[in-house]
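Technical note accompanying the year-one report. For the benefit of new consortium partners, we illustrate the data format agreed upon in the data management plan: each record pairs a sequence with a structure-token string. No post-processing was applied to the example shown here.
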Amino acid sequence: MPIDAVTLEVLRNALVGVAEEMNANLVRTGFSPNIKERRDCSAALFDPRGRLVAQAESIPVHLGAMPFSVRAALERFPELAPGDTVVLNDPFAGGAHLPDLTFVTPVFHGQELVALAANRAHHADIGGQAPGSLAGDSTEIYQEGLRLPPVRLWKAGRLDEELLGLILANVRTPEERWGDLRAQFAANETGRRRFLELLDRYGPELLAEALEALLDYSERRMRAALAAIPPGVYEADDSLDGPAAGGEPVKIRARVTISGDEIAVDFSGSAAQVEGPINAVYAVTASAVYYTVRALTDPDIPPNEGCYRPIRINAPEGTIVNARPPAAVVGGNLETSQRIVDVLIRALAPAMPERAIAACQGTMNNLALGGLDPRTGRAYTFYETIGGGFGARAGKDGLDGVHSHMTNTLNTPIEALEIAYPLRVERYELHEDSGGAGRWRGGLGIRREIRVLGRRARLSLLADRRTSAPYGLFGGEPGELGADAVLSNGEWRPIPGRAALVLEPGSVVRIETPGGGGYGDPRERERALILRDLREGRLSRARAIESYGFDPEG
């Protein structure tokens, strides 16, 4: 007898609740500020075949790529046993980039595998040539950190001390890493226990039936949403900044075909992979496609394997969107994923003008600083991503100073940053005039300045939209480019968006993040909104005259 709609909805929410509790426990028990403050982590549940069935609403680039990690774990260990936990981060074996470690734990009821609990967390250091494992000048993956194919860190409930020792010997902050690893283990244990509680309450037969029904339900809803889009072929392209300062832009091109209740995305024509850190592996590209399709159709469709069945992706091997080893890929997860979203929204905007948004900042502005803490004499690694402008859309201005699209983290609070690291935040503000003008204005970027205290530090910056601005839509102007600089010996000097350098004590790094693109003709913007922006410091008089043809003093 088919499961009834009420029971299915109850179980769907119960499964989501399990994933959310997993993520909450990971945040609560995390050791590093990157997890406990910024919440750079995600959790999900999978059926015994490795199909995504429920997820916490956390980091899109994690969640869309996590199924590839779960499948890689199952392929490597087809006979998982109770008490096993698989750990991996290899981008070419189910991972995304090396700082993201994925834990996969089987859930057994007796001797039967009934589910898999998984989580992914970004570790602030995983070794490699630069503190934070985020080298802006890496050219191959071997420079980016310790690479783990699927391995069992716990076997039958026992920690593999030798493997743990190998991992901790290759990172700069072993105590912090071990704390975060334990938090990930605890999160999966939470998922395992809670799933078994559901199974005991509803029975294995009903729960198994519900998992299958949920996938089919999401598939039906996604097909219905795709069928509502005007059929046709839609194309667009956009570019990443070159892999090195002054280098040629790196094009991403997409051809999107809407046919009935299916969508096909073809990245033929995108640039070949490059000698730089911005290559993406297929899992990252798929994740960006899944996110964009769901966001543009119906974000309320339950995200699971069924939701993505109507989506076809062609990402040619050896390109920027499906790199071969030994390509450097740390920025593919961070930057290229964002540009894929920009390209897809730009392509589909003519078909869905009421749902499309102008380009958001299009970068995560990844900043890493590391060295020896003068207070303790021990190594530290600080990592954060910095928000920027959200794109404007029909009827609404873009949000100011937020993370967008493939990232969904918080900022690092100034108090937490200054307690944990020998750093001082000297400026943190919205960047006037950075939002693209339009009938609806793009969101503003952020200006953040951080001073290095006590001892020299190594800086790695991996950011984008420093040469190619976030586009506007339907007559809207592009958002302001990002810009970066270092204050040393009393003088500010610009640095490229992909930088690796040493900062002397007292030096200050400034990150100015891009603004979002505008939507619609700026000359149609209501004068009351322009005056509000002037009053609140979002807009200067000069920009009001230039972009809106309006002089508040005229």
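Partners are asked to follow this layout when depositing records. The radius of gyration is 23 Å.
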